[in-house]
Amino acid sequence: MxxxxxxxxxxxxxxxxxxxxxxxxxxxxxxxxxxxxxxVQPASPPRKTPTLLTALAHLFEVSQPTVSRTIKTIEKALxxxxxxxTRPLKESLKASSYLVVDGTLVPLWNWRSLGKTNFSxxxxxxxxxxxxxxxxxxxxxxxxxxxxxxxxxxHAFRAxxxxxxxxxxxxxxxxxxxxxxxxxxxxxxGLGLLRExxxxxxxxxxxxxxxxxxxxxxxxWRILHTGFR
Length: 229
Hints:
It contains eight helices and six strands; from the N terminus they run ααααααβββββαβα. It has 229 residues and is α+β, with helices and mostly antiparallel strands.
């Protein structure tokens, strides 16, 4: 028998393959069936569905044990990510340099049932009050738990016990006057500030501006920006 005929016989579809092709064309239209019969191809033999590890190993062209070790490494890392911050606030505020503290309002829905509990008269909207503490070089140390937005920064400062942890080495704005922090000098009614006091206020405001940039970064990355529902 010529070699070409042997090749055709070897590649000819078997009875089972023809039966599978016939079953697959039962739901086709007549012209589609004719097209299918004119270009009959052998049906591929059934294969066992590969497991997830086998599929990943084939996809990335590595061995299955390598995939298993990689998944275990990722699982261990993910277990640490959602873990809440359990370190005490006192340990978080340990720093060798001066600190800066300021409050920020995180907007949220103004539920009618809560009245004006979360409404901030300063910002004219509802939200939560957070105290943000960082170093002079912009390293974020701590963000306190939320308090109602109607509360002043001085009240939030005491409520979180920060008056027991921070001293005059911490810079703050005029909202923290009288709490033992380094703050700008407030002008008294009917009296102006001396030149030295104005100069001191400008220096403090320039140094304190770092916490404003930290808060802006936190909100830019939507860590505290997304509203609560």
